[in-house]
Specification:
The strands form 2 sheets. A 6-stranded mixed sheet has the order 6-7-8-3-9-10, sandwiched between helices. It has a 4-stranded antiparallel sheet with strand order 2-1-4-5, covered by helices on one side. With 581 residues, it is α/β, with parallel strands linked by helices. 62% of the residues lie in helices and 10% in strands. The protein folds into 3 domains: 316 residues, ABC transporter transmembrane region fold; 171 residues, Rossmann fold (3-Layer(aba) Sandwich); 61 residues, no CATH class. The protein contains 18 helices and 10 strands.
Length: 581
């Protein structure tokens, strides 16, 4: 693939936001509540300082003092309630934004072309969906909901302090700012590097362990258990080192946070104490100044959090953008509403530098049985992948009824097919889920049972526990033969006009192979059948047989003609391929 430009982080950040529906009502509500909280925090120090100006020895002002105390208490209570409600609404809004980010990213991952997925490690996409989106939403909600109330408080505080008449008070608040900003810049840089390093190591470790844990039989059969444990330990050690550096970054941030609390407090008190002792400000003004300063330094320190969140979001946006810029599997604009003749016109295809197909041309007539045979690695499965548009030809083109298949909208195009790939893959769920996956209509249990009987799986399913039996992750609780029979049943239950079967009977015995081949012929009578088979006896009656040899067309025709004219075809029989007696 061509080398991509380094993504413009904040441009892609805005583009990502544009693709989701922000919960504006919740954001506005949380914003107004936080703004109200800031207003209360501005009012409280003024109310408290007002008490010091009252003559508490005068019995006539007792009621006034009590009323003032009650107002202060109610304001503090209101501040607490508003803060609690705003925090709740903020978390709800953040959760919804994160959910929408995850939906956009997840949709993109599932819409990628097969080539893009195979060029990356799909397991690394998981952290983009589950972790990186959270960093982006954290920053966004902090920016939209909390930042303006913070700025409002900070600016209003500076105005109130400046009118007290002492430049030292204003200077004290100004002196706090560089301390916090320097700490924020340094902390954000450390966090960004540590977090990016940790996420990369976790992604590689996840991919490594998942790959090996999924295939324990290979590891054990070749007695590589200890080697794999040792190899895994290397990744775990790398993650430990990355976690250690991340922990140090967290500890550093905590240290900075403590410093940002202590140093500004000392600075504010010193700058306030001097004018108080010299008589330039009153005790009431000093109390108001200290009260505002306590919240002021907290809001200033919160900018550290905003900066750290911004740096995390920067790294996360970079990683998400790398996914979002990958090619999607969309196709063209035409609707594929009917099947017809498929024609390969001089198709060549190269994968990872290796030429798989070379100038391949043939036509599959609508409604015919078309078989593809050849030695392993000759390109048989690749032809089916190209028909399904999992890949695009490097040269030449494939047409359906004379129209390049790339002009068809991909979803409507693939509805034409019922596809059975090699190894009969499946997902976790029940037997019923396995059979109805991708079904375009509701299929009754009676239909499922009837099809199970046809593929000789009814008794086995009953023994397992029926249609509600959980097949396990990747259908791993089923044997290869059971999974193959269920996959064939799933294919037969679909209502597609074209059947694509890649080694549909590879895991079955001779009897199962013959029975399944017959079922496919019965089910697809009058429909187009394109079959890759290792058992030549199941395709001898094909209308056309395509013989591939090292990616080239070695023969094309019926069995009798190929037997006479194609040495590559005859060699398939002599190499041990099964043939009906």
């Amino acid at each position: 693939m061509a080398e991509r430009k380094k993504p413009a982080v904040w441009k892609n950040f805005l583009h990502l936001i544009w693709q989701i529906k922000l919960p504006l009502v919740l954001i506005v509500a949380a914003f107004l509540l936080n703004l109200g909280k800031a207003v209360i925090e501005l009012t409280l120090p003024e109310r408290i300082s007002g008490l010091t100006e009252m003559d508490l020895t005068d019995n006539q002002v007792v009621n006034t003092v009590l009323a003032a105390c009650l107002i202060i208490f109610l304001l503090a209570l209101l501040q607490f309630v508003v803060g609690l409600v705003s925090t709740y609404i903020t978390f709800i809004a953040k959760a919804r934004i994160n959910r929408d980010f995850q939906k956009v990213t997840s949709r993109k991952v599932f819409s990628l072309t097969t080539a893009e997925v195979e060029a990356h490690d799909p397991k690394e996409f998981i952290s983009r969906i589950t972790t990186d989106t959270g960093f982006v939403s954290d920053f966004l909600i902090d920016l939209l909901v909390l930042e303006i109330p913070r700025l409002y408080f900070l600016i209003s505080t500076m105005v109130r302090v400046s009118v007290m008449g002492s430049g030292a008070l204003t200077l004290g608040f100004i002196a706090v700012i560089p301390v916090v900003l320097l700490g924020a810049l340094w902390s954000g840089r450390v966090t960004y590097k540590a977090q990016s390093r940790l996420q990369g190591v976790i992604a590689r470790l996840t991919a490594r362990l998942a790959e090996k844990v999924e295939h324990p039989e290979i590891i054990k059969a070749y007695n590589k258990t200890e080697d794999e444990i040792a190899a895994g330990d290397v990744f775990i050690d790398d993650m430990k080192k990355a976690q250690k550096k991340t922990t140090l970054a967290v500890a550093f941030n905590q240290l900075i946070a403590n410093i940002l609390f202590v140093v500004p407090t000392v600075v504010i008190m010193l700058f306030g104490a001097v004018p108080l002792l010299s008589g330039r400000i009153t005790t009431a003004q000093f109390i108001m100044y200290i009260g505002l300063g306590a919240t002021y330094q907290k809001y200033i320190a919160d900018h550290l959090t905003l900066w750290v969140l911004a740096k995390k979001a920067q790294g996360a946006t970079t990683r998400i953008s790398e996914v979002m810029q990958l090619a999607e599997d969309l196709g063209g604009e035409k609707t594929a509403d009917q099947a017809g003749d498929f024609t390969f016109e001089g198709v060549s295809f190269t994968l990872e530098g290796k030429k798989i197909l070379d100038n391949v041309s043939f036509t599959v007539k609508s409604g015919s049985k078309f078989a593809i045979v050849g030695e392993s690695g000759s390109g048989k499965s690749t032809l089916l992948n190209l028909i399904e548009q999992f890949y695009r030809p490097g040269a030449g083109r494939i047409t359906l009824n004379g129209t390049d298949i790339r002009e068809y909208e991909i979803s409507s195009y693939r509805k034409l097919f019922s596809y059975l790939p090699q190894n009969a893959p499946g997902f976790s769920g029940t037997v019923r889920d396995f059979l109805t996956y991708g079904a375009r209509k509701t299929i009754s249990d009676e239909e499922l049972i009837s099809m199970l009987q046809k593929v000789d799986m009814l008794d086995a399913v009953k023994e397992l526990g029926g249609l509600d039996y959980e097949v396990g992750q990747e259908a791993g609780r089923l044997s290869g033969g059971q999974r193959q029979r269920l996959a064939v049943a799933r294919m037969l239950l679909s209502d597609a006009r074209v059947v694509l079967a890649d080694e549909a009977t590879s895991a079955l015995d001779i009897r199962g192979t013959r029975t399944t081949a017959r079922l496919i012929d019965e089910y697809a009578a009058g429909r187009t059948r394109i079959l890759v088979s290792h058992d030549l006896s199941t395709v001898l009656d094909a209308d056309t047989i395509l013989v591939l040899d090292h990616g080239r067309v070695a023969g094309l025709g019926k069995h009798e003609d190929l037997w006479r004219s194609c040495s590559a075809y005859r060699s398939l029989f002599s190499s041990g391929e099964e043939v009906a007696s």
